[in-house]
Amino acid sequence: MRRRTAVLVGMFVLTLxxxxxxAVPGEIPFPSQTVESVFVSTRTVTAPSSPDGPGxxxxxxxxxxxxxxxxxxxxxKTGKILTGADVKYAYVKxxxxxxxxxxxxxxxxxxxxxxxxxxTIPANYTPKVVDFVVRFRTKDKQYGNFVQIPVSTSQLxxxxx
Length: 161
Hints:
Blueprint (H helix, E strand, L loop, with lengths): L1 H20 L16 E9 L13 E3 L3 E10 L11 E7 L5 E3 L1 E2 L10 E6 L7 E2 L3 E6 L4 E5 L9 E3 L2
Parallel strand pairs: 2-11
Antiparallel strand pairs: 1-3, 3-7, 4-5, 4-9, 6-7, 8-11, 9-10
């Protein structure tokens, strides 16, 4: 357990260091210059029922398919990986205001995100980029957000299918 925690903390610190070193003078990093309280990272993968197989990393989904949001969150000041006991709320917010609650599950592997939520895309959903955001609030009132980088090939996109 200690080794697993040490590996996760090491990965978290390495990620924060890489983000900090990536800043170019005179250029404002996306989405902001600093990570204040909670670092949040998100990826989308296919659902277990997907014809492509479960857990395939992708951002293109046909109408009617299910998107699985996998999320990692860590406290920037302590380096602690956030668990269900630490968080007051965690959700994905879709452009129409729909909130998808994220659930915590102890990860099987140290590289797996511990938070997840699913969204089944309505059959009549307009094909387009889905500008979702992820919001976290810890019980000690620390906040974290995730927004997609504005590069079309990296954004959640609904296709006609």
